[in-house]
Amino acid sequence: xxxxxxxxxxxxxxxxxxxxxxxxxxxCGEPMVLFRDEAGDAVALEDRCCHREMPLSKxxxxxxxxxxxxxxxxxxxxxxxxxxxxQPNIPPRARVRSYPVVEQHGWIWxxxxxxxxxxxxxxxxxxxxxxxxxxxxxxxxxxxxxNYLLISDNLLDLTHENYIHRTSLGNQAVVEHPITVEGGDDxxxxxxxxxxxxxxxxxxxxxxxxxxxxxxxxCDRWQVIxxxxxxxxxxxxxxxxxxxxGLDGDRSQGVEGRNLNVxxxxxxxxxxxxxxxxxxxxxxxxxxxxxxxxVAQIFEEDRAAxxxxxVVMDRxxxxxxxxxxxxxxxxxxxxxxxxxxxxxxxxxxxxx
Amino acid sequence: xxxxxxxxxxxxxxxxxxxxxxxxxxxCGEPMVLFRDEAGDAVALEDRCCHREMPLSKxxxxxxxxxxxxxxxxxxxxxxxxxxxxQPNIPPRARVRSYPVVEQHGWIWxxxxxxxxxxxxxxxxxxxxxxxxxxxxxxxxxxxxxNYLLISDNLLDLTHENYIHRTSLGNQAVVEHPITVEGGDDxxxxxxxxxxxxxxxxxxxxxxxxxxxxxxxxCDRWQVIxxxxxxxxxxxxxxxxxxxxGLDGDRSQGVEGRNLNVxxxxxxxxxxxxxxxxxxxxxxxxxxxxxxxxVAQIFEEDRAAxxxxxVVMDRxxxxxxxxxxxxxxxxxxxxxxxxxxxxxxxxxxxxx
Amino acid sequence: xxxxxxxxxxxxxxxxxxxxxxxxxxxCGEPMVLFRDEAGDAVALEDRCCHREMPLSKxxxxxxxxxxxxxxxxxxxxxxxxxxxxQPNIPPRARVRSYPVVEQHGWIWxxxxxxxxxxxxxxxxxxxxxxxxxxxxxxxxxxxxxNYLLISDNLLDLTHENYIHRTSLGNQAVVEHPITVEGGDDxxxxxxxxxxxxxxxxxxxxxxxxxxxxxxxxCDRWQVIxxxxxxxxxxxxxxxxxxxxGLDGDRSQGVEGRNLNVxxxxxxxxxxxxxxxxxxxxxxxxxxxxxxxxVAQIFEEDRAAxxxxxVVMDRxxxxxxxxxxxxxxxxxxxxxxxxxxxxxxxxxxxxx
Lengths: 352, 352, 352
Prior knowledge:
By secondary structure, chain A is an alpha+beta fold. Chain A is built from 5 helices and 18 strands. Chain A is globular, with a radius of gyration of 23 Å.
């Protein structure tokens, strides 16, 4: 399946893109070099010198420009060649493609498609907690050898917690309580509410520390998954003492997390999975790393699973599968992606 | 060349298939998961959950059933789904393919083809010494990156002993004595008789220990190779004091081994080579491992050779070769395989 | 692009080809085994036994012949089978292809094309300093994962010194002085003359040691690149005290090196890069290794660069690039190669 080119994807964490060392990253099959120009703004160019095809990311930075490491051509952040060693004139076609870049919600986003159609307002607002004073957030990147949509599927069905994560998150309640699925042209919402139960150790500790709950506290728990295409997923998760209104919208007595996920295709069968956990409890900065480490460990279990699935799918692409009740969310999400890809194909054909 | 699907292949040693951990193994291009059901019988299913294509071998056993490690579907030894988490009903098409399995002659055999045509009586009786009170047997498995028939070719022409194994078995007598070749529709027999010679160290020691032979004993030696398609080979090998009838059928004064070999294709260019050495001498159990180690070491030399040949063949498939006198056995065996493959193709076409 | 088959290529250093161990090397896609016959002459055969396709290089030498390590067939240096174990007669078609071989200028050259067209006089005389009493020479081999012509391109444009080798050879003067390019049907000459400048440390030391120059000596420097197809390059490099005639042909007051390079294709995307540095200064034998080590280190930087370029080219073969002034030399060389390949194709078609 082709990539959805006209979309924002997370390309990197801000700390990865510097004015000193160019960063190579391939997004939707497009090899890019990311760096910061003299103003400190992140930029993305095609990672190929237009002279003899050397990756610019193998070169080095000079005052906000990147110097090719082979014959020394130098390019600014717009992709324009600003120096050719040994000759005074620079032909106008000496330039490389540049991509729209925006730094927002604690991530650097690139738009691999048609630049004119890139609107920063389309970056999903639901990721704001990654970089917002009301929240503490920490995260990481997991490189996964599968099609990026397999991770989107995975996040839209949390029954897998009880199996993939049986030794870490194992959770029979998640299996026993049904989900509700809603959706529109460009969104899916999957909700599971688990009233009045003995909380899992992770949540009990959070509630005791942050809200002074008693050791025998019983809880209401919610999992609300928000999906936006291509593969943007924000999970609202949290607990409140049973009967205090947490399931009806008043979460003031509870503790909350936002599991923020963007899966960025590298190639058709590899992707960069950017994730963060924002929390409104245990907000001490020294807790950032432990929370990120914990999530990273759990996502390793998902990585192993979806990579194993990819291997099986490759043996016989398109072979039918059976669906079960828990699949409602990701089936809707897949339909949105299919529709966007089809629309993109029609646009491309019309343009020919 | 296609695999011969309607045939029994060794899939594993009995000790490899347990009721606790599922075993993944690909036979004739078919990925299988092997385990034992509640009765302790070995079973083989397709190694792919019918829900989201997770390999079942990545899951775990629960009372003779295998639980998928992704969303928790559970399958019994017949491939039937017996549980779908989060929903009471199980649609009838929630099942995976199962393969006929038989445990016999110390090996677990599977039939990758049409189940209705599987008859355990077709498992070659010549492998009985692998699991028979008259014999002591020990063996192992060698994974080889070549087409399985290259190993069958190798075993049908023992002149290679003097070259591949020149430092381990090097044996000019094997080269100097001619072979006789016989065969029928589904068998080949290659025989070499070496009368009245000074025995190789291995056989001299065996004869002295087991039969009290003198240090200067002279021997008659036999090598009789029995082939059954696709790649089943039992080699009768042994020596007796010269003139005591060993070459005429009375081996009572001699010592005997049976080199038992089944080569099971994994893919077109990789295979599992299952082998054992049964012996009627030095039958102390503590000798099992030394004999197996010795054979494993020698088969490493064969592995290196046939893998090198595969690389050359891949460069130019189907390029002609010249034949020599020693090739009589494997040329006959190849003809049997060609005929079986052609017959299978005709059956498949007729069924279309 | 096809290889130019009717050409001499360096296959090995003389020390690599012995009468004791056969050497495997693939030249222009042709797997060869090199060894020395009873007379001590280097020979090259196809590295594939004509019986069962075992590489002959996995066998061993016996009195100037090579014995196949599988079933023991033995071949002499002309490719004729001289022994088949277990049978007296040797059919005439039991032979393998042999290739013309010449040992000259300190290298072993093979001709992968039509043997009748091989003329040792075509080996470029410009490599004589590799094995000549007036020079001391030392060198090595670098295995590179790129098309061999990328290395030829690289050597024909030395402006790269200032970028690829910025930490080792970095040299602004090379960029600032223009080149002159000349060429004919089968040759290219690229010349850069750098008058009256402060010499680089390497050359200053050479001039002081060999000619007693003063510490503040100023220099004239020359770089003259001689190219012959397919990928033979001899670089005349050196310095002389400024104004002593070095740029006009009288190099008697200076020091000189000859950087000798033959790039031999292995496959379309891998090659053997044979190189040597001949020098007429610091001729103590104990300096051979240090000079070779220094060149090897620098060529590692080139290797990394051209391998990176190959990866980019593979993504989109034939995609246009822009040329700059410094490209004059290798553009001419590429045209010669294109013409030779086209002529070869016409010959092949005419022969059909």
